[in-house]
Amino acid sequence: MNNNNIMKKFCKELRLSACLNTIEECCDSVYGYITGEYEVNDLDELKDALLCIPDYIKEIREILEEIVDIYEQEALDNE
Predict the structure, then answer these.
(1) SS (H, E, C) the chain
(2) pLDDT at 76
(3) N or C: less crowded end of the chain, CB within 10 Å?
(4) How far apart are CA 42 and CA 61, in angstroms?
(5) Burial letters for 35-53: b for 16+ Cβ neighbours within 10 Å, e otherwise?
């Protein structure tokens, strides 16, 4: 495993973590609103939070595919 692949995977893992954190924040906001723990002046804010989740899920899938590609390339390089 070379340092370049380690850095590539690390950067992709950071992107993955950021996407997951954003989804969690969106869900927490909506859950907080539903349970009455979080007040919003504009319901469009909650709508926007929910609407962004599919985009982040798509990005997560793409990141995971990129990470798999790196691992597959490493396996080929080690043969």
Answers:
(1) CCHHHHHHHHHHHHHHHHHHHHHHHHHHHHHHHHHCCCCCCCHHHHHHHHHHHHHHHHHHHHHHHHHHHHHHHHHHHCC
(2) 85
(3) C
(4) 31
(5) eeeeeeeeeeebeebeeee
